[in-house]
Write a structure and sequence with these properties.
60s Ribosomal Protein L30, Chain: A, alpha+beta, 10% strand, OmpA-like domain-containing protein, 46% helix, 214 residues, 4-stranded mixed beta sheet, cell outer membrane, OmpA-like
Length: 214
């Protein structure tokens, strides 16, 4: 009777899983046989970012960037050329980015659903690179800008198989800080965030306004 009970889990496992099934391989194979899916180390990285405060800083800066300047530019069909409207938007982005030399950015490229996935992925990446090149021409160091592998047509704003200008876009986002910039991680985060407010409190003579009327 005991042998029957002990064999039941094994028999059930054999009946429910095929040789190629991950559960089958995990049970039959050696410990650690299943290869990591690519997320190994993320928990440690997130913990480190939380403990240093960098993660919350990136979140705060991302929100501020998105609230103060347009983060998206759009493109003509099958094109990576920046039109006048796109350049105006990128001029605003560049002016904002120049205020914060400690911050890094990523540019994500997107397309509509017309065309093959491979072609669209390449097109989206070309669009992201066009944005990075333009921001660089406006005085932003390329060491702070990254055109990432395009999302292609996989993240539409408007779900349609046809031409949709709003899906043909790039999105600029805050991605982190330059080499864990000591200005940020040394208790001076407020100086970064409120830099222009501090500067506005300084008079032309070089004396800081006291608010007392003196």
């Amino acid at each position: 009777m005991k042998k029957t009970l002990l064999l039941l889990p094994v028999l059930a496992l054999g009946a429910c899983t095929a040789p190629g099934d991950p559960l089958h391989r995990a049970y039959r194979g050696e410990a650690g046989a299943l290869v990591d899916g690519g997320n190994f180390g993320n928990a440690t990285m997130n913990n480190a970012m939380v403990m240093t405060g960098e993660r919350s800083y990136v979140f705060d800066m991302s929100n501020r960037f998105a609230n103060e300047v347009p983060t998206t530019v759009n493109f003509a069909f099958n094109s990576d050329v920046l039109d006048i409207g796109a350049r105006d938007t990128l001029n605003e982005q560049a002016a904002w980015i120049r205020q914060f030399p400690e911050v890094r950015f990523k540019v994500y490229g997107h397309t509509d659903a017309v065309g093959s996935p491979g072609y669209n992925k390449n097109l989206g990446l070309r669009r992201a690179r066009a944005v990075v090149a333009y921001l660089a021409s406006r005085g932003i160091s390329t060491s702070r800008l990254e055109a990432v592998v395009s999302f292609g047509e996989t993240q539409p704003l408007i779900v349609t198989q046809g031409r949709e200008r709003r899906n043909r876009r790039t999105v600029t986002e805050v991605s982190g800080f330059v080499k864990s910039h000591p200005m940020v991680l040394d208790g001076k985060y407020a100086e970064v965030i409120y830099r222009e407010y501090v500067a506005s409190a300084t008079t032309e003579s070089g004396w800081k306004a006291t608010g007392t009327g003196e």
